[in-house]
Amino acid sequence: MKKVSVKCPKCGANLEVEAAEVNVVMPVHCVPTSIAVEIPVPANKLNEAEAKIEALRNAGVNVANLFSIRGTDGSYEVGRLTDGQFAVVPDDDPIFAAIRASKTIPDRRLFRRWVMAQVFHMMTETDYKTGQPIGFTAALRRKGYKYQWEMVVEELRVQARLNVTDPENFAERNRWFNRGVVVQMATDYIKLVRNIVTKLRIRSCKGVPYVRLDGTNIFIKDLPTKVYEPLEKLLRSIRNTRQPAALYRATTNFYKAVKETCLFFDMEQSRAFKDAYKGAGAFFTLKNLILFHDCGFPKMSQKMSREYLYELASQKDLEGYKLFGILKDFLVVNGINIEAMRAEWRK
Q1: Residue 181 near residue 155, CB atoms below 8 Å
Q2: What is the pLDDT of residues 211-221, one digit of tens each?
Q3: Quick one: angle between helices 244-261 and 229-239, nearest 10?
Q4: d(CA 282, CA 280)
Q5: Residue 204 DSSP SS3
Q6: CA–CA dist 264, 208 (Å, integer)
Q7: What's 40-106 look like in SS3?
Q8: 3-state secondary structure 150-163
Q9: pLDDT one-digit tens code per residue, 56-88
Q10: What is the pTM of this model?
């Protein structure tokens, strides 16, 4: 049966569907809030449980161990077979609830899958010359300094919307990218600029010393008022924000100043950014594997694994790189072959 590939214009996630069975309705504007999955009524109408499973299948979820079962009262439910044990999937499962309410699969579900695909891609990136793996941190550094600001600005824009429309998803994402991370990123940038200035060649114009900072000539005596103080003022505005929308605006303003002051590809990314990036990547990848790929922590059911993941994320002192280490162990324990999984997605 012919498959149609639909690409989300926002996150880039690819969704393959069978054209004869499902129509995927994608808004033409840039930021879809959901991807509608319309299930037509065939000659043999699907029961409610089968419809749920079909919607999940067409969204790319592994449904090999899901079944439709009929109770003594004639109602249908979704059952799951795990490790030889059969259990009914509760009706209050978040994604089932969303399908039942509106026949849609929220785009945050695709966001999780997109994050996992991005993490797997970066974990397997190789050196251009030797072909040897370079590691996740080097792959992130390869994206350049500008990437950290563009990624965070976009993340905070989305969070400002989710704070109103989807508090649960907002909390999950704000756990990693938040005001504290942006404050540290801005602080690190100011230190970088000061360090760069000290290494610049001092020039002279009519006996007055000046430096050329990223193509702009600035008298040394004007550095405090034209460079450092404006950046410090913008940093204070970030630190004083209390609402997600305000944080987004303040971060956008600081990034604008970054582009106007000094921006080089090989500037060192902030440690706070790299740690948050690893933490978010690890969290959503683990959650995706637990919910949709039959993976779990040792001797834990799916429910227990998910609860344990949330318990880990709730620990304020858990740094992102530590959760990323847990992800690596998780992949080994569950026998996940990243290259094989990526190859399967490309089919």
Answers
A1: no
A2: 999 999 999 99
A3: 160
A4: 5
A5: strand
A6: 27
A7: CCCCCCCCHHHHHHHHHHHCCCCCCCEEEEECCCCCEEEEEEECCEEEECCCCCHHHHHHHHHCEEE
A8: HHHHHHHHHHHHHH
A9: 665 555 677 777 877 767 777 787 776 666 777
A10: 0.70
